[in-house]
Amino acid sequence: MISRSELKFVKSLHLKKYRNKYKKFLTEGRKSVIEVLQSDYRVEVVFCNKSLADEINTYAKKRTIRVEEVSEAQLNEMSHFKHNNACMAIVEMKDNEKLKIEENEFLVLLDRISDPGNLGTIIRICDWYSINKIVCSNDTAEFYNPKVISASMGSFTRVRTYYTDLEEYLRSINVPVYGACLMGKNIHHIAFSSSGILIIGNESQGISKALSKYITEKISIPKYGGAESLNAAVATGIICDCIMSKVKK
Asked: How far apart are alpha carbons 227 and 179 in whole angstroms?
């Protein structure tokens, strides 16, 4: 049973200022909750409906995490989304720690990605291609936004992020930097290094001029039709596929 005060607290986590204040966020839906229960995130409590209680408890009891059975109506009231009658969890945020690029590793760097759905999908794409580090500009969408967590489909538990000044970060590294640009070199004609950084720019403005000077190679997805541009997440997926098909051979 959930108290009114706890219900109020859950609903406060819909807002970024309270997520930052309490250093906690919400994970919603069966898949995402089970993923976070199997991860190294610290989970405070799980709320679930009666039909999921046994399944959730099999994961939660391994880590002595509290599970509260609530009604579907209560779950809907607590949810950030229109419909969630399954489960949700309150989870502790991780510290914003600097991510270093290791040997034979690719890292994605996001310059002002503003749409939470795009960020969540990019996280999921990176997880698919075993890229587990993303460096974000300070004005990129918030990692713990409920829409980001939802769109990542649990991949947020395996992909780490670091928010920082991107110029400062790029000055500190010494690996090839590939920038996704409309007028870049065809990605299929590039011999990618075994280690490197892929920069994806803002959905409408691309990579900022301030970061362009750090790009080793401007790259582009060849165009065969009439579309003016590609969605940032779609472009990330195509480029990651090309990179991994070459460096993982």
From this structure: 20
